[in-house]
Structures are given as C-alpha cells and as structure tokens.
C-alpha cells in the first residue's frame, strides 16, 4: 500500500527526471506531453486511438484469413419430412405431436430473413404461452473475440442412431436418480442399475471413455479431468466473499419425488408451448448441492423430460 504523500513525492521526482532528460526517448516524451497540454485534441489520446484502431483491424484481418469452418448438421432436418427430430416448440402441432409443415416452413423463412419485424408474425400454437428465448441472437455481432459463426461444435448424434439411444438412456437414468445423493453413489442400488444398463448398450456412451462406466464415473463429463476427485467442486461448498458481504452457497431446491411430462398429453402440451399443468414445488429450507436433482441451473427432473428428442 502506498500513501498519497509518497505517491505525490514520487510523481514529483519522476517529473524532474523527465525534465532533465532532454535526449533520446526522454525528449520525445517531454515533447509529446507538452503537445498534449497545448493542443485541445490531446495528441497522445488521438495517437493511441489510431493505434488501437489499427491493432483491431489487424486482428480482424487475421481472423478472417483463418479457416472458417462450414457449419455442419446431423442431417435430421432433411431426413424427416415431418421434422420429428427438429426443434419446433410453441409452433402449431397436430394430435400426434407433429409440427404443421406450413408453420415450420414459415419459421425457417423468418429465421433466414433476419427481419426483426417478421418475428412478430411467428406462427404459434393456439395453446402457446411460452416464448422462444431470443431467436434473433444469431444476427448479433460480438466485438470481442472470434465471431460466433466462425466457431464450430460437432453435430449431435442422428435421431435414429445408436449414439442417440445411449445418450437418451443416460438422460432417463439421470432423471430416475435425480434425488440420490452423490455420497451414496457407491452403495445405491439404483445407481448400480444405471451403470449396468448403460454398460450393456452396444454403443459406448462416450467415444473418449472406452472403458466401462463405474459409479464413480457416472454422469460425468468427457474430459480426463472430469473423473478426478469428488463429483461436486469443493468451491461450491465455500462461502463467497463479495465486497462487504458474504454469500453462502445454499439454495432453495425443488422438492423430491416430483415428476413431469411422464405421459403423452403432458408432452404434447409442452411441445405446443402450453402452460404446464403441474407447478414445480420448492423446499422451504435452503441446502447445499448434493445430488443431480438440485443443481442450481440444471434441475434434472424438469429438463430431462423436456428434451426435444422425446
């Protein structure tokens, strides 16, 4: 920590050093400072702004000259005329849960147009109350980092593939084991059943994990570090200091043994964007994260059954 008095003293000494150094870089700095004081436009600020502009242009050219990967899909949208494997929530659906072809075609046309006014004409099911989350975000440009359209993610598994089947099985098991505490994974019969079932599939759950699943590795990520240590980061158990306030990491979680979208009518209503028939109930007591069912941003019991692939 430096006191105000020491700071002013050092500033004065630095000013004297610059004044006496009239050769080389010292003279250039003094001239620049004097010019900045004399000219209203501030010479140094203008020069820095110009240099900042040049650096950004160089970075943009470098990014543009790099390989811009072509977006890829799994082919499902073209594979199924009824669009059974494509996102169509809140659009009109028939009684079989199939999206109306004309509505889906209009939706694609609106997306391709980029016209914000046309989004007000988005076809919606008469039962729809839910709204899509910012569908126009794709047209935004981020001035920091690589453009979003210059990045690439591998396409999801095809709807009728073995890879999709085992991933869906994992999601169902996540829902069925949502309330099992992580500390009980090694002894839980339900977790053991999940491990046995997923290992029995002909297709591996993750190509990056060739060995068999275990209770310790169940529901983890795909990178090597994801299976090291406890399931929950220990940072999620610690208080978070924020200025003069301390935040603890206990949350209000959904009550246990709640089920949603477990029958066809509830699923169909969800596809149409209707108001849910059942409301999520929360415990009154706040708790630390202890199971898959009470992650703050991923409530398994609701998100799994709302998966579009169902």
Tags for this model:
35% helix, single chain, mainly alpha, 310 residues
Extract low-pLDDT stretches: 4-29, 296-310
Taking all Cα atoms into account, the compactness measure Rg is: 29 Å
> How are the strands of the biggest sheet laid out side by side?
1-2
Helix content: 25-40%
Mind describing the biggest β-sheet? Answer: 2 strands, antiparallel
How many distinct helices? 9
Distance between the termini: 60 Å
The average pLDDT value, as a whole number, equals 79
Provide the succession of SSEs.
HHHHHHHEEHH
Q: How would you describe the overall organization of this protein?
A:
There is one protein chain. Helix content is 35%, strand content 2%. Mean pLDDT is 79; it is low at 4-29 and 296-310. The chain is mostly helical and 310 residues long. Strands 1-2 form a two-stranded antiparallel sheet. The protein has nine helices and two strands. The chain folds into three domains: 4-65, no CATH class; 76-150, no CATH class; 162-306, no CATH class.
What's the arrangement of secondary structure elements?
Blueprint: H1 4-20, H2 24-38, H3 43-65, H4 76-79, H5 101-113, H6 162-176, H7 189-199, E1 240-242, E2 245-247, H8 264-271, H9 300-303
Helix pairs in contact: 6-7
